[in-house]
Amino acid sequence: MFKTIEDFVGNTPLVKLKRIPGNTTNTLLAKLEGNNPAGSVKDRPALSMIMRAQQRGDIKPGDTLIEATSGNTGIALAMAAAMMGYRMILVMPENQSVERRQAMSAFGAEIILTPKEGSMEEARDIAGKMRDEGRGIILDQFANPDNPLAHYVGTAPEIWRDTNGTITHFVSSMGTTGTIMGCARFFTEKKPAIQIIGVQPEEGSQIPGIRKWPENYLPKIYDSNRINRILLVSQQEAEAMTRRLAREEGIFAGVSSGGALAAALKVSAEVENAVIVFIVCDRGDRYLSTGLFD
């Protein structure tokens, strides 16, 4: 029986860092989500949201889907829509990297750019207006429980399996918060002592994939009670650590992954004999035009 592309979403590698952690009793493990077919952790919720909505009868092939996105979710939704026969309209700030826009277009999505000054908040408002005008259906990654569910049934069980249940700390950048919410739910059910650490940007830092939302735009799927601690990282820290990941570990990743590693190292400096897992959200080829690796 031959497999199709959706069969290869998930079951991504979990690899041990060899050089960056330095002399420590801790083990730092990177979950390489860039190995998903469309290149990011967002493949999981994108497929989950479309497939489960279709199973419920909320959508059917041929429908138009609309989503506000800063990049990775849009690429993943464009792939899933192409695979399952939907028209995809993506609304995103104009300052996202050209590679992201080109990837979305390659999958056949229509892209609507919004002013960079309005950031993701304006993109979300415009997507909502388009839905209200009857131009399509919003799956809404920020409020859709099928987003964290993808990580509850996939990402977290894979980490639990691959660490043989020895994980002590889970570190994840926070955007829609789907990854950290779904994983936190699974891990705390398995072992309540596991520390769940979220990563947000310092004031003034612009880190693709990591956000601190204004109160009225806070994702509805977010539950602060599931997180033990939030660590702030600067744009400079995230970018420097992203370059180190490539040059010292051979892991070519995006800048949110560097932010997650920076936070994981802060945790590692405080503990001993820990197993610290962090999420490598996507691949670095999505950021070449930004000058990140120059």
Automatic annotation (TrEMBL):
Q: In which pathway does it act?
A: Amino-acid biosynthesis; L-cysteine biosynthesis; L-cysteine from L-serine: step 2/2
* Cofactor(s), by name: pyridoxal 5'-phosphate
Q: Which GO terms describe its molecular function?
A: cysteine synthase activity
- Catalysis performed (reactions): O-acetyl-L-serine + hydrogen sulfide = L-cysteine + acetate
User: What GO biological process, any one, is recorded here?
Assistant: cysteine biosynthetic process from serine
Coiled-coil boundaries: none
Identify the enzyme class.
transferase
Q: What is its EC number?
A: 2.5.1.47
Source species, domain of life? Bacteria
- UniProt-listed SUPFAM superfamilies: Tryptophan synthase beta subunit-like PLP-dependent enzymes
Where in the sequence is N6-(pyridoxal phosphate)lysine found? 42
Q: Where, in this chain's numbering, is pyridoxal 5'-phosphate bound?
A: 72, 175-179, 256
Q: What is this protein called?
A: Cysteine synthase
Q: Which Pfam families match?
A: PALP (PF00291)
Question: What family does this belong to?
Answer: Belongs to the cysteine synthase/cystathionine beta-synthase family.
